[in-house]
Amino acid sequence: MCDYCKSLYDKNMEMLSFAIKYCEENFLHEDIINELYNNDDLKKQLCLIELDCIKNQKEADILVFNLTGHSGPVRETASFKILELIKKTEFCSFFQTKEIINTFVKSVTDINPSVSRNAVQIIKYVSNTEYIYELLIAEINKTLSQINDNDKQHSYVMNKKNFNLYWNLEALISLSLKINSDSKLIKILEQTAKSKDYTIREKTAKAAKIFNLTQISEMLKDDENIYVRKYL
Predict the structure, then answer these.
(1) DSSP, residue by residue, 31-95
(2) Higher local confidence (pLDDT), 20 or 65
């Protein structure tokens, strides 16, 4: 076995040993919350899974703190747990501060698609719809302002911009039952309807259908992409 393979094997076995050890522990609620402040990612993931309630604002804050700026597995597990808890009436009120909403919006464009998908669902339960709507509009406009004709369609930079547009548009669509289309949204969709990326045009077409914006649908009526046309 090569040295690298042996090192990787030893590390994996060590992680497995820790995982088994942690699974055998019985964590009290206070132990779980305290672990969310620490840096043992493996133990933190297990504690996030075990977390079944939030008792105060401080506990909600530390849970959401782990949604950004941490390892991918921790962010992903935190996103699943937040979605699980925010759906419940008894816990939803703890996730309504502007600081927490700001974090939710940031997580919409997480590099981990699982986090993004969960974030899009999480924001449905935010009560301050106007605030989160304005944040999403601002994020989209910021991305659109950074796109220029010199960007190569398949470059890393362009892909990142399209990624941001894709998920922020999906986030706006997820709020469709709580918001009405306005001039700001229409102006954005008029721009994204002209995108060279079919996934952005697809989200635009979906938004046009959801918000009943026939003028946007009209812009896309001759689109050759099947994924765009399915919403028309």
Answers:
(1) HHHHHTTS--HHHHHHHHHH-----SHHHHHHHHHTTSSS-HHHHHHHHHHHHHHHTSHHHHGGG
(2) 65
